[in-house]
Protein: Isochorismatase family protein
Organism: Lederbergia citrea
Amino acid sequence: MKALLVIDVQNGIVNFGDFKEELSLMENVIKDFKDSNRPVIFMRHLDDTEESPLYKGSVGSELHSSLKDYADYVLEKQTPSSFFNTELSNTLEKLGVNHLFITGFNTEFCCMFTAISAFDRGYKVTFIENATGTVNTDETYEMQGLDIKDFVGTVLHWSNVIEVLDYEEYVEEYKAENTI
């Protein structure tokens, strides 16, 4: 069974930038999964540090209103990996999931760590590159011209074990054939 993982779509991240395009693509993928009665699992990153925009119990830690009502499951995490010390593995096992699709924030941290962790646990992984977003820029990494989403997508693709698609390729590969 296929499941969709929507990572850290929380106010403390989404309100940090203009993510209309990414949120729209995430919503399209979510609707595909909902229409096919496939599980949609949201991850929430919670921090213990009061200064964090994702501080446990703060408005920033809440799921963003644009997508939160789509969640079949909401699980919490405190590290970049959605698997480390969470209920994700148990949830996926109970659901019989063997193929995990990944969208959400931040591309180069939580999405990438989760994709690698999922592969390490034996899941087929599809990373939908342009249905991820990041608050970071090329300036954050002092690498002029760096396209973070494309860089992460390329690295994961080169692994030859994680399928990396943009939304249009996802539609062609999975939606058009009703194979979600």
Summary: The helical segments are 11-14, 20-35, 88-95, 107-120, 148-158, 167-175. The radius of gyration is 15 Å. Residues 2-175 form a domain with the Rossmann fold fold (CATH 3.40.50.850). Residues 130 and 168 are 9 Å apart (CA to CA).
